[in-house]
Each structure stands twice: as structure tokens, then as C-alpha cells.
Design a protein that fits this description.
homodimer, alpha+beta, Dna Ligase, domain 1, 2 domains, 5 helices, DNA-binding
DNA sequence: TTGCGTGCAAAGGTTTTGCATGGCA
DNA sequence: TGCCATGCAAAACCTTTGCACGCAA
């Protein structure tokens, strides 16, 4: 599980405090630069990777030459649960849907591909922003 | 509309000849290096941008530090097309599938969300790596 | 004491841009 | 002739990595 470092505690604490927000690695880096022990940018990236692995944080890759952004979710079980990310407002929508469950089944049966719902995010424009 | 240059003609001609294939900018660059007037990489990027704008080419952005890939469509509204990315071998599978087309429809009808297939990648484990 | 975690800077990848040159009209 | 398009190399961008040092256990 690793050592219990000041930097790790600051990063996790900061992320928890901004649960729901979508932040870039650089934003996190800058926000941690003030007050307390500063945290190196490489360390921010290393922790984000680790937290993504653990399922505590979701990562959304940006366009080329744009930062990826990260959102703290706290590792809530997201079974049968899909994520729709809106380009416009940036919100992450959590969707439970029987129909979508069948999609994973189809992809497995026909394409032989085991879909990982947790790691997959569907991108588009949400109902509110569509108007 | 711009000048009618040898390089532009070669790029468009090559793309038309590989309609349906998914090519990276670098692949296009390398394929054009042999035979006829070579085309600079910057020019390849400039033409791809231009053709994406015109709707002649679709762009699929890859992960960070991976090339985007491009597909010539000739401006036709082509079939919805999904990307399955395998964690294990890293391959990107391109899937045309009628069933998956209906998924986008469902997401729109029921969840009010306009899915962007170009920007969406489904993650999991491919048939080969599953064994 | 052991060895993981960190910070810095450099490297790594793709894509964009500045600027002088060459080719189209 | 006028000016856009091109090519080269450098820059830009985010992210990863190498290495020495410091700190947790």
C-alpha cells in the first residue's frame, strides 16, 4: 500500500475536498503549491495514476495538446453503471440502464471483447446543453 | 480553395485510395515518402486539418503520446463506427456494427444524450488477449 | 537500516508554428 | 508579379522517466 507521506495526504485531501469537480494535473499542482508542503508535478501525476488504478479517481483524456482531467469519485461501486461525459458543461452523468447492460453482452458475444464499464466513458452532449 | 499543388493532389489521391482505412499522420507521411514528390510532415498535418474541416476525413484522437488516426470518408455520412481499445495488447479495434448504432439511438431517446462516436472509446480486453 | 517516495530536470511522444523558399495563378 | 503553400527545424504541449536524495517504517 506504500508509505504514508505528507504529499500523498495533501493530494488525497485536496481531491476529496473537490469531489465532483474536474481538474487537470496542473491545476492540482498549482493549488497545492500554496500552503503546506509543495508537491512536485511528477508526484501529482504519480498519485493520479495510482488513484485511477484504485478506482478512486476517474480520468478523462483531453484532446491532443490539452490536459487530461481528473475527477474524484471515492471509489463508489459503479456496477452496471455507465458514465456519460458532456463536452459542453463537463458534467459526468451516471446512468443505470438495463439496455446498456445488454450492450456489454453484445460486445462480448459478437466481438469477443470484454468491456470494462468502469474504465469506459461515453462522450457527447447532454440533454441540458443540447438546447 | 487554395492553390492546386502536387503535394495536395498526392495526399488526397492517397487517402482516396485507402478509403475506409485508419491511418496515422506519420503513416501517411511515410507512404508518401516513396515515389513522386515527397510531402513534408507539416504539410500532411495541414492537409489533414483542412480535410477534417471540410468533412472529407474523420479524425479519431488517440491517447496522449499516441497518434490520432484519420479515415477518408469523402464527405459521405458513414456508418457509425466504434473503437475498442484493449488494455493488454494496446491494439485499437475498429468496429462497424448495426447493433452498436442502435446504442447511440437509445442513449439519445432515453437519456437525451447525443453520443459522439468519434470521441468515444470503449475499453476492455480483446478476444485474443482473453485466452 | 532498508528501500520506497519524492523532486528536479531531461526525455519522450505528437502536433503546431516561424520563417525563408519555391511554385501556382 | 503577387502571394499562398511548402519544408525544415524549432517550439509547444502534456506526460513519463532517470537518478540522487530524503523520509517512512
Amino acid at each position: 500500500m506504500g508509505y504514508n507521506t505528507v504529499q500523498g495526504k495533501r493530494i488525497i485531501s485536496f481531491l476529496k475536498g473537490s469531489a465532483g469537480e474536474h481538474l487537470t494535473a496542473d491545476e492540482i499542482f498549482r493549488r497545492l503549491a500554496d500552503g503546506g508542503t509543495a508537491v512536485g508535478k511528477a508526484t501529482v501525476y504519480r498519485w493520479l495514476d495510482k488513484l485511477v488504478m484504485r478506482g478512486m479517481v476517474r480520468q478523462f483524456s483531453g484532446e491532443k495538446n490539452e490536459s487530461a482531467c481528473y475527477q474524484y469519485t471515492g471509489g463508489l461501486k459503479c456496477d452496471n453503471h455507465y458514465h456519460l461525459k458532456c463536452f459542453v458543461c463537463g458534467r459526468l452523468l451516471h446512468v443505470d440502464c438495463v439496455y446498456l447492460d445488454k450492450v456489454a453482452e453484445h460486445i462480448l458475444d459478437i466481438h469477443g471483447f470484454v468491456l470494462n464499464e468502469e474504465k469506459t466513458t461515453l462522450y457527447g452532449i447532454c440533454a441540458d446543453c443540447k438546447k
